[in-house]
Every structure is written in structure tokens, then in C-alpha cells.
């Protein structure tokens, strides 16, 4: 089992902003070499150059849309051709649409399913077998506290994160005693580009955290805990555990009130979608 990130190679998706960017920086700080993936080539290259200069690590960039099957296969083929061994896969890229379900086009909803579920599952299937053969390495999946609860106005997003959480924990069980670490990070509200674009004021959100704090927590837990998942923050944990004691309809009522557009200050029915390079603040 891995004891540190020094001199390992980590592939981080959604790495040009938000939690993905913070994870890449923290990994570089701890001595990891990186492969950074997102759709925004300019921001990705700028971040890569900064990490090379500040931490003296090798950083490769691969600007692609991971929602596309062909792009994922191209990424995997490039990794193999380059002779890079991916020791840790960080599945962070995600997509969210804030607003009522009927207001979103099915094309947008399908893109969210493709990135949040299909891409994460496919990349894990591509890179996990070689880790199991080497009996070392790991997969860090970024889910959310949204995976524990239904969220009106973020309904499909929350459902995708429930998939990520359950998939990760089941895979953790399959990989026990095989030398490979599977871990699922469940942050709550993290102040990233999603909240700014959606018009959600920081003062109106509960228990907001910085992406840097979430990243440090995730990597510490990845190395030191034997649990399959972890919720970031005391208040987030308290909220999730309290909801489990009450009826499901009460949870839906509370989350509907918390995320309704009138309360968070967004008069629009639906905000623009937030892509892989503009990671959803809830993750």
C-alpha cells in the first residue's frame, strides 16, 4: 500500500480549476509527477508550467473532453505510448446543471451522465487492471455530500454522485488485500467556479470550504485511512448523519428549501452548465 506521493505519477482529471486544480497542486507539493486533463488547454498549460517551476516535478497535459469515448481511448493510448505508469488515478472531472429538471435539455443532461458516470467508470476500468497487476497504486474518486441525499434543482447531479459513492465503496471491497487503494472523497459546498456562475452567494451557502483545504484532507485520508470514503468537514458529517435519522421526505423538503432559486438569489430557472474545466462547487 502507498505510503506517500513522492515520485509517483498521478493522473488528475478536471485539473484546470477548482478541486482538481487544488489536488494537482497538493500532489506536486508532495513530490508527485502529474498528468493533467481538462478541456481548457490554455489554463491547463499555464497550471502545468507553474507546477514545474515551483515544485520541480514532471507535468504532462492532455486537453480533451472526457465525456467523449474517443477522447478517453485517445488519452489511454497516449499514456501507453509515452511509457507513463499511472500510479494514482484521480477522477475529479464533473459537470452540473443548476435548475429544474424540465428546464435542462436532454443533451445537457446526457453530457452530465457521460462525464460524471461513464467517464469515471471507463477511466477506472482502463487504469485499474495494471495497478492490480503491480499490486500498488490507487483510485481517488471525487463524489459529494450530494451523493447521500436527493437535491431538488440539482437532481441528476446528486444522482450521479450517489453512483460515484456506491461504485467507489463497492470497488474498495473488491480490491481489499490486493495492494490497491480505492477512496471516495465527499466534499460539501466548496467555493469554486460553479457557485460564481450560478449566482449562488457564499454567504447563502452552508459550511463552505476552500478547494485547498478539501484537497489536503483528501490526500491525507487517501494515504492514512482504511475507510472507503470520507466526508469533509464536521458540519457536513453532522448534517448527513442527522438526515439519516429522519424520514426521506423531510430530507427532500429541507434540500428543496435550501437550493430553491428564490432563496439562493438566482432568479433564473437554470444557469449555464459548468464543464469539466469549470468543476461544480459541490463536486
Please state roughly what percent of the residues sit in beta strands, choosing from under 5%, 5-15%, 15-25%, 25-35%, 35-45% or over 45%. 5-15%
Count of individual beta strands: 7
**CATH-defined architecture:** 3-Layer(aba) Sandwich
Report mean pLDDT, rounded to a whole number. 87
What is CATH's topology name? Answer: Rossmann fold
What does this structure look like?
The protein has a single domain (9-264), classed as 3-Layer(aba) Sandwich (Rossmann fold). It is built from ten helices and seven strands. It has helices at 18-29, 41-55, 69-82, 106-134, 155-174, 193-198, 211-224, 234-245, 248-259, 261-264, and strands at residues 9-13, 33-38, 59-63, 88-91, 138-142, 181-186, 229-231. Helix 1 crosses helix 7 and helix 4 (106-134) packs parallel to helix 5 (155-174). It starts with 8 loop residues before the first strand and ends in a 19-residue tail after the last helix. The model is unreliable at 197-204 and 266-283 (pLDDT under 50).
Compact summary:
With 283 residues, the protein is an alpha/beta fold. The protein has helices at 18-29, 41-55, 69-82, 106-134, 155-174, 193-198, 211-224, 234-245, 248-259, 261-264; strands spanning 9-13, 33-38, 59-63, 88-91, 138-142, 181-186, 229-231.
What secondary-structure arrangement, pairings included, does this model have?
Layout: E1 9-13, H1 18-29, E2 33-38, H2 41-55, E3 59-63, H3 69-82, E4 88-91, H4 106-134, E5 138-142, H5 155-174, E6 181-186, H6 193-198, H7 211-224, E7 229-231, H8 234-245, H9 248-259, H10 261-264
Parallel strand pairs: 1-2, 1-4, 2-3, 4-5, 5-6, 6-7
Amino acid at each position: 500500500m502507498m505510503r506517500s506521493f513522492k515520485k509517483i505519477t498521478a493522473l488528475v482529471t478536471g485539473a484546470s480549476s477548482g478541486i482538481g486544480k487544488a489536488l494537482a497542486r497538493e500532489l506536486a507539493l508532495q513530490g508527485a509527477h502529474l498528468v493533467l486533463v481538462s478541456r481548457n488547454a490554455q489554463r491547463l498549460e499555464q497550471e502545468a508550467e507553474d507546477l514545474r517551476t515551483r515544485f520541480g516535478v514532471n507535468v504532462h497535459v492532455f486537453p480533451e473532453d472526457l465525456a467523449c469515448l474517443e477522447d478517453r481511448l485517445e488519452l489511454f493510448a497516449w499514456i501507453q505510448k509515452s511509457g507513463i505508469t499511472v500510479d494514482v488515478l484521480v477522477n475529479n472531472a464533473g459537470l452540473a446543471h443548476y435548475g429544474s429538471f424540465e428546464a435542462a435539455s436532454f443533451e445537457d443532461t446526457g453530457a452530465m451522465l457521460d462525464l460524471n458516470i461513464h467517464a469515471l467508470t471507463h477511466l477506472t476500468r482502463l487504469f485499474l487492471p495494471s495497478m492490480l497487476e503491480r499490486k500498488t497504486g490507487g483510485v481517488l474518486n471525487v463524489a459529494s455530500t450530494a451523493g447521500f441525499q436527493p437535491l431538488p434543482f440539482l437532481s441528476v447531479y446528486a444522482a450521479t454522485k450517489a453512483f460515484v459513492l456506491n461504485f467507489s465503496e463497492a470497488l474498495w471491497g473488491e480490491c481489499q488485500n490486493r495492494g490497491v487503494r480505492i477512496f471516495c472523497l465527499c466534499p460539501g459546498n466548496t467555493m469554486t467556479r460553479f457557485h460564481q456562475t450560478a449566482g449562488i452567494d457564499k454567504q447563502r451557502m452552508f459550511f463552505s470550504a476552500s478547494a485547498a483545504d478539501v484537497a489536503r484532507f483528501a490526500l491525507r485520508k487517501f494515504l492514512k485511512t482504511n475507510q472507503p470514503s470520507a466526508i469533509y468537514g464536521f458540519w457536513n458529517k453532522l448534517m448527513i448523519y442527522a438526515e439519516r435519522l429522519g424520514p426521506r421526505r423531510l430530507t427532500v423538503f429541507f434540500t428543496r428549501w435550501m437550493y430553491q432559486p428564490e432563496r439562493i438569489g438566482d432568479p433564473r430557472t437554470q444557469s449555464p452548465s459548468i464543464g469539466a474545466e469549470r468543476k461544480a462547487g459541490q463536486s
